[in-house]
């Protein structure tokens, strides 16, 4: 196995490195893929989706090169160091390659899944075959060299014949006297023969590291590495601002240290003493977990973690426990389902009060914006489809203030097992109730609009719809009130809707604005009251305060309401708005048809999502800025202190939940934080910002099978 110069051939080192590379790459890739799939409930995008054929080629290559190395054999003992180093280096590179493929799968997966698996396998097979032929070419036997002549044998010396003793001379006596003062020599046995001794080449003693160097090496592996690596790992895991490429250098720096530690624990005690092994084992067993827990307690990487969470029991099968809406009031969050109204304290999540309608009645509608000290809702009979009673409640204690008859429209759909209609197929149940100024306004399809006092429910005013029109909605916020009517075909403008501004004190019409009407009833929605933004005929309009013509905004209307992965009826009483207004700028989740695209995996097709924000001027409707794309879906949006905060959830290739703040003037992302632990489902939810340094409230839809908190505060 060694050539005439005593060195291991290059092809033998390359063969050992190839086997080490395959032994590190193939098993570790499979184990890492299995680990990721076992951790995540939803199948993740794996590199095996596009590299299954390549994996098969690598397995066959491992068997082939392993068989070749077995046939070649190992060098003699004492000369196996280069081959073993080839195994170690190749194995380390294989493990690093598996980690690199996993970390880079986010970039590789959408690009390589479009390629045919067979083509990638053929490319891998061609590369492996070329490498094997290269090794065969390097391993050609060299021409034999003539053997060196053996040295002639030296004949043994014959024993000397005995001589007769002679009288000693003076010189001999002096020599004996001098020799008597030296160490005596052992006389040679009689009859023995002497063989000439050939001088051995001088060999230097093996170099051993100094005790000081051994101490510092052991201290670095037993103290510095167990403390530093968990800190880096925690920072790369919890830090949202950590770039994706940083994880691989951290692993590159840590893997040789871990490999050196394992090797020191496995070698003989004559090389590494038992005391050093005990120090290494104790350092990693004690300092490693301690550093990990301490870095988590000190929030290394600045993750966003839950402060408290409210868990609810699984709701009934009819969906009555699904969140129909919520209001974030001062110090309280009120959650609405079809069967109950519950208030939770923001400080600790404790239940402050809960109110259920009497006689098994159900909630069926609600005013989107509450008034100071008043929540306005509507009730229906258990088996009825329409609302028949309006009720006002005090949000401080949940006690009813008053109730009145109400000939309302359809109920929201959280308490039915029927399939959810497609967006826009039916008129939304919102817009039946509104609170504005001193009035609680009811929209009744047959009678028109009716205003009641918020204090005791006495009637303030009534307003009928115009001739040929019917009331279809009402919206109020603060002292602003808007009503919407649907009008039949007009000889001049055809079928249309009319948006009117009214005085909430007496119902007087202040301005009237006709808008086109789309083909679907769900196209009509009052997105905002101040400023007044109306979505009609797949277009968003800003309605001015005067009789001026409404301004058409160049907005993609699919992002006006967040409906991603919501259960039937979830947030149908109080919608999750995907818009917010900052000064004279409308910020909305910008939508493009290419934002959702399929990616083929071994589990079938999975949909990847990317998103962005866009700002539009309320003066002329033009786009002012558009943010950079980010992976995942916008599942929550809110505004606080002049900044836009977005809750972003992605599921591919790994689950990740982030909170990001954007500058509304430029659309630049100014802050980003990672939520830990990651949310399990990519569903829309209420995101309410609390005062500075108090965090955010997250309210989920609360599906019947949910086992995670329905409400939590994070910071």
UniProtKB/TrEMBL annotation:
The chain crosses the membrane at residues 12-35, 47-65, 86-104, 119-139, 214-232, 244-266, 278-300. InterPro entries: PQQ_rpt_dom, Quinoprotein_ADH-like_sf. Residues 142-213 are annotated as: Disordered. It holds the Pfam family PQQ_2. Residues 150-179 have a biased composition (Low complexity). Keywords: Membrane, Transmembrane, Transmembrane helix. Residues 498-682 form the Pyrrolo-quinoline quinone repeat domain. SUPFAM superfamilies: Quinoprotein alcohol dehydrogenase-like (SSF50998). This is PQQ-binding-like beta-propeller repeat protein. It comes from Streptomyces chisholmiae.
């Amino acid at each position: 196995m060694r050539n005439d110069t005593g060195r291991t051939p290059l092809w033998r080192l390359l063969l050992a490195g190839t086997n080490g590379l395959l032994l590190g790459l193939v098993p570790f890739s499979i184990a890492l893929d299995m680990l990721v799939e076992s951790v995540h409930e939803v199948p993740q995008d794996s590199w095996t989706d596009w590299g299954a054929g390549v994996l098969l080629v690598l397995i066959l290559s491992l068997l082939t090169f392993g068989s070749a190395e077995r046939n070649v054999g190992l060098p003699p003992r004492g000369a196996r160091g280069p081959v073993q180093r080839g195994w170690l280096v190749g194995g380390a590179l294989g493990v690093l390659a598996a980690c690199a493929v996993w970390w880079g799968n986010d970039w590789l997966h959408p690009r390589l899944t479009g390629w045919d698996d067979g083509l990638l396998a053929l490319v891998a097979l061609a590369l492996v075959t070329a490498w094997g032929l290269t090794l065969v070419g390097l391993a050609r036997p060299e021409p034999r060299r003539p053997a060196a002549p053996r040295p002639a044998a030296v004949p043994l010396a014959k024993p000397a014949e005995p001589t007769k003793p002679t009288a000693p001379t003076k010189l001999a006596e002096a020599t004996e006297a001098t020799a008597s003062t030296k160490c005596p020599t052992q006389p040679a046995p009689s009859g023995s023969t002497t063989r000439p001794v050939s001088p051995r080449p001088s060999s230097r003693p093996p170099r051993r590291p100094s005790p000081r160097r051994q101490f510092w090496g052991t201290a670095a592996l037993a103290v510095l590495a167990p403390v530093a690596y968990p800190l880096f790992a925690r920072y790369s895991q919890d830090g949202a601002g950590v770039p994706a490429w940083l994880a691989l250098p951290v692993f590159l720096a840590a893997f040789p240290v871990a490999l050196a530690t394992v090797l020191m624990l496995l070698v003989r005690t004559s090389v590494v003493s038992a005391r050093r092994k005990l120090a290494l084992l104790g350092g990693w067993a004690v300092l490693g977990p301690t550093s990990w827990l301490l870095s988590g307690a000190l929030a290394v990487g600045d993750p966003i973690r839950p402060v408290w969470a409210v868990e609810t029991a699984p709701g009934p099968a009819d969906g009555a426990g699904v969140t129909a809406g919520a209001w974030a009031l001062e110090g309280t969050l009120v959650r609405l389902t079809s069967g109950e109204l519950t208030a939770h304290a923001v400080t600790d999540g404790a239940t402050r009060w809960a109110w259920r309608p009497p006689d098994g009645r159900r909630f069926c509608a609600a005013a989107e914006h509450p008034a100071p000290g008043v929540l306005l809702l509507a009730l229906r009979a258990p088996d009825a489809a329409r609302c028949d009673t309006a009720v006002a409640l005090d949000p401080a204690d949940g006690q009813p203030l008053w109730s009145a008859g109400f000939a309302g429209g359809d109920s929201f759909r959280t308490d039915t097992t029927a399939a959810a209609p497609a967006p826009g197929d039916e008129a939304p149940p919102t817009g039946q109730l509104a609170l504005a100024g001193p009035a609680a306004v009811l929209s009744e399809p047959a009678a028109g609009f009716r205003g009641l006092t918020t204090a005791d429910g006495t009637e303030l005013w009534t307003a009928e719809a115009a001739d040929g029109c019917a009331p279809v909605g009402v919206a109020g916020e603060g002292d602003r009130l808007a009503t919407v009517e649907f009008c039949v075909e007009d000889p001049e403008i055809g079928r249309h809707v009319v948006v009117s501004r009214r005085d909430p004190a007496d119902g007087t019409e202040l301005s009237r604005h006709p808008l086109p009407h789309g083909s679907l009833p769900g196209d009509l929605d009052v997105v905002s009251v101040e400023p007044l933004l109306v979505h009609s005929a797949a277009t968003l309009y800003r309605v001015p305060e005067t009789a001026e013509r409404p301004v058409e905004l160049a907005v993609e209307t699919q992002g006006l309401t967040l409906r991603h992965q919501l259960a039937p009826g979830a947030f149908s009483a109080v919608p999750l708005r995907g818009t917010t207004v900052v000064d004279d700028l409308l910020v909305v989740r910008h939508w493009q048809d290419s934002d959702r695209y399929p990616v083929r995996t071994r589990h079938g097709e999975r949909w990847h999502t990317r998103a962005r924000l866009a700002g539009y001027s309320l003066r002329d409707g033009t786009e002012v800025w558009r943010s950079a794309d980010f992976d995942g879906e916008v599942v929550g949006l809110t505004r606080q202190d002049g900044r836009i905060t977005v809750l972003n959830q992605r599921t591919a290739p790994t689950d990740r939940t982030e909170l990001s703040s954007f500058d509304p003037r430029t659309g630049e992302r100014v802050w980003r934080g990672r939520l830990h632990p990651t949310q399990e489902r990519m569903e829309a939810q209420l995101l309410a910002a609390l005062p500075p340094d108090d965090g955010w409230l997250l309210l989920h839809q609360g599906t019947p099978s949910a086992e995670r908190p329905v409400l939590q505060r994070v910071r």
